[in-house]
């Protein structure tokens, strides 16, 4: 016996369409003949036999052909109660969807800075000597001895002394030339990243420093250190990398089908496994313009404030993106939809035990089910567990099998 006939065979009949003619009426009525258990209506067979649950003989139940031809079927109230049919009234509601993904914390690329030497020399003293160390903007990183830098300081002091003497003279051209020479000597020091404060100190003391400190260009954490005390460094050599972690980026891979719900500026939340119960709020900052063809995902970048340093680069985080509600639409439960190849079908509940299969066109998947673009109107009633009802009720199976190929008659709904 064939109990609980597979829904696939029904949908094939629905998709392909079965045209009923007068010549095949007798064959159709024979095909609609089914047998059910009086105590267990979910047990359905196309031939006589016994119920595998209680052992009772199956009783014959013929489908009214007229109900098949008009697209609806009549089911008695006892069967409806035994099956436990549940219905709902269709109405418009805000489309809601929460996008969840695994994120990875990374540096904000706009807050990373490299420190390079612009002049050759020897590292006399290393003030910042390990990675992970916090530095403030303007803090000395190392003391550099450079004969070239010593000579540049001497040239500046000479030019300063000469300019001061010429300003009291009578020849304006000579005084202007002395000032130009001083500006050039000063600019040379600035080009080598000697700060205004260091130059002012040189002017005040009139003493050439044997070494000159290289200062941190910004506050942050030292993430790379490529220098040792006593080492010779050449012009252009990389010394440190400093990253400001007060703001971090988090990258997440979002599946292709969820991308309609993600846009720049949306609110995002992350949680960390080592801080249970604590959430961090940020926003979607950038959506990459290409897709990973292997994973079918698009990378999304979010920006988060990180003043307390809880979000550390390379940590994994649980990401939740909460889209703003852009529109309203008809939303029905996922279990109310029967998937049949390229078609989607729901079962209408017309009251008084009358049911009818109807094709619908669905849109995006929401938290509550599917958006219906076409085929339903607010106020109509549908069965919320359509597939279970069809599996349980032979008349509705026959209605599906007997539907004509053109099911678009309800397209205006």
Describe this structure in words.
This protein has 413 residues and is of the alpha+beta class. It folds into three domains: 7-94 and 328-410, conserved putative lor/sdh protein from methanococcus maripaludis s2 fold (Beta Barrel); 99-108 and 245-322, Beta Barrel (Elongation Factor Tu (Ef-tu), domain 3); 118-236, no CATH class. The chain has nine helices and 26 strands. It has helices at 7-16, 25-31, 65-69, 77-83, 147-166, 172-191, 196-205, 386-392, 394-402, and strands at 33-36, 44-45, 59-62, 73-74, 87-89, 92-94, 99-107, 112-116, 121-126, 134-135, 140-145, 211-215, 220-225, 232-233, 238-243, 247-255, 267-271, 279-292, 297-305, 316-322, 328-332, 338-340, 343-351, 354-366, 369-374, 381-383. Strands 4, 6, 21, 22, 23, 24 and 25 form a seven-stranded antiparallel beta sheet that branches. It has a six-stranded antiparallel beta barrel with strand order 7-16-19-18-17-20. The protein has a four-stranded antiparallel beta sheet with strand order 8-15-13-10, with no helix packed on it. A hairpin with a 4-residue loop joins strand 18 and strand 19 (297-305). The model is unreliable at 1-31, 64-69 and 402-413 (pLDDT under 50).
